[in-house]
Structures are given as structure tokens and as C-alpha cells.
Amino acid sequence: METTKLRRFAQYARRTLLELVETRLQLVMQTESVARRENADAVKKLEEAIKQSGQEQVIERVAYTWFNRFCALRFMDVSRYTRIGVVSPTEGQFQPEILAEAKMGHIDEDMVADKARQKISALLAGRVPSHDPQGEAYRLLVVAACNAWHKAMPFLFERINDYTELLMPDDLLSGNSILAYTREAMTPDACQDVEVIGWLYQFYISEKKDAVFEGLKKNQKITPENIPAATQLFTPHWIVRYLVENALGRLWLLNRPVPGWRRKWSTTFPLSSPKRTFSRSVVLKKSGFATRPADPATCSLTPSTCCTPSTRKRATTRRISRKRFLPTISMASSWTNVRVSWLHLP
């Protein structure tokens, strides 16, 4: 995949969105702002968030939220996951399809609530005074689309009924808008590969990551809010495949050799040593005690969750002295007779 255009777009988008969100924040926080009159609860939540996390972190969070949503909507438009283009126009047009349809009186009743639908119609018909009626109507349509996708993907499209909506960038329809650049970068060809989403995140955070590592050279500690920029990196498909085939895939073939599978895994190392296994049993007396497989790097068997504070307090880590054995765990009953099988790695 050609990533040069994606890199330029993602880095530009971050800087632009930070500026646009900050501008919106200044307007919303004015004493006599429209937002304070019409959305007092949302403004109150915004003030609480700023007090708790700081203005810079709130701006950073909201900017990335909208970047994530715009890119996801563009990808879904191109892939035809959406019934109507939310950020993408029809062929030969410039305005998003959902706005063009709304101007003709076609608004999806399943997606847009009655109150919002009436306001959109009034704005587009000129019955409500507005400096930018089409822009305001489109903002309502985007919010409705995000909320409609909340049921299917709540991890990505959280319901927008707070200050996130208030801080949505203003200019979304012009030729220099963030959506215009999103469409230019996320072409139909680029969207054929789902990795485009991962690369966009990698490039979006790249400038902040560079700044964090520059700070380390000056003996500046990484603060909690900067940990994601330093540690969350996109892993391309070929790396994931290499790791899986040579780790889990290798163990699978050792235990259940299937003719022809190794030929599909060109990166798998030869299985030079025969399988050797032995086992030991560990009995955990408390009910409701859950475990997870040991970390091969530390060779530890760690209880991951406990159902009650008392059992959680008694949770301990069992250290295993054998350094070349990978454990697999099977639960025998609810009273947890746990059998740990150790697979020798050649």
C-alpha cells in the first residue's frame, strides 16, 4: 500500500483538527454563547472535563474522536456499508450524498430522530435563521449517523449528546474542509485494504510520538496522557502473520499435524524436534477463581480476576522455574481443578 499520501493527510488532519476544535471551544466557553443557552448541561460537562484533565487534553481527545469517526465513515461509505454516503458524495457531485438527499426532502426516518429531522428541514427551507444553514443541517445529519451506528459499533460511535457535538469542526463542506482532504486521501483504491485505518492512526500520532521521544532525550518523563503515543503502534498484516504462524501455528502443528498446512505458511520454521509433553496439576480451592496462561517471557502463572475482594486479596503469582515450557490451561470444574500442561519447545 502506498502510504505517503496517508502520512501527509493524517499529520495535516491532526494539526487542523486541533486548531478547529480549539476555536470551537473558545466560542462555546464565551459567557453569552449560544451553546450555554441551548446546551447548558453539555457545557457544564465540558467545564468539568477541562477542570479534571486540562484544556489541552480535552482538545486532543475531541480532535482524535472526530478524526476517527470521519475516517471510519469514509471507509464505510466506500465499502458500501452505509445505505447512503455520510461523508462521500455521489459520482460527479461534491456535497455529501446524505445532505444532497436531505435538500430534496429525503431524510432517513430510521436514522434521524423526528426533532432533528424537523430542524434540518427548517434550516434547508430557510424557515430558521442561520449564517450557514447547509453546514448546520449537515452537522445534525452527521451526529444522527454516528448515533445510528452506535448500536452496531459502540466502541467507535459513542452516542453524541455531550460536548463532543459542541466541539465538532465548523467547516465540513468547503473544498478546503477536513472532509474534502479525507476523501482525497482515502480513495476507493486505498480503502480496498482495511489496513488503511491502522496506517492512518499510526501517522496521526507520529508527530506526537516524535515529540515524546525528543523529550526523553532531555530526561523528560513520559506522562500518562503521552503513553499511547509512545507505545501504541500499528502492526501490519505481514508481521501479525509471521508472529502467529511461528508461535501459535508452530504449536498447533506440533500437536495436530495437518497435511498441507505448512505449505500455506511460508514463514514457518521447520519442525526439527519431536513433540515432548508432560504435565502437572494445580488445585485452586476457591470457587470463581479465573486464571490466564502464563507469560512465556517470565514463566509465571498469574490469576487474572477474582470474584470477591477476599479471593482477590489472596491472589498470588506462581513462579515456574522451567524456562523452556509453554503452559496451556484447561478448567476441569467450577471448583477449579486446574490442569497445567507444559509443552516443551524444541
Q: Topology, pairings included?
A:
Layout: H1 4-28, H2 34-38, H3 40-53, H4 55-78, H5 97-103, H6 114-125, H7 133-148, H8 163-166, H9 178-185, H10 195-204, H11 206-217, H12 227-231, H13 237-246, H14 248-255, H15 261-264, E1 277-283, E2 289-291, E3 300-301, E4 303-306, H16 309-313, E5 318-319, E6 325-331, E7 337-344
Question: If you had to describe this structure to a student in words, what would you say it looks like?
Answer:
The chain is mainly alpha-helical. The chain folds into three domains: 4-231, no CATH class; 235-272, no CATH class; 277-344. The chain has 16 helices and seven strands. It has helices at residues 4-28, 34-38, 40-53, 55-78, 97-103, 114-125, 133-148, 163-166, 178-185, 195-204, 206-217, 227-231, 237-246, 248-255, 261-264, 309-313, and strands at residues 277-283, 289-291, 300-301, 303-306, 318-319, 325-331, 337-344. It has a three-stranded antiparallel β-sheet with strand order 1-7-6, with no helix packed on it. It has a two-stranded antiparallel sheet with strand order 2-4. Helix 6 (114-125) packs antiparallel against helix 7 (133-148). It comes from Candidatus Nitricoxidivorans perseverans.
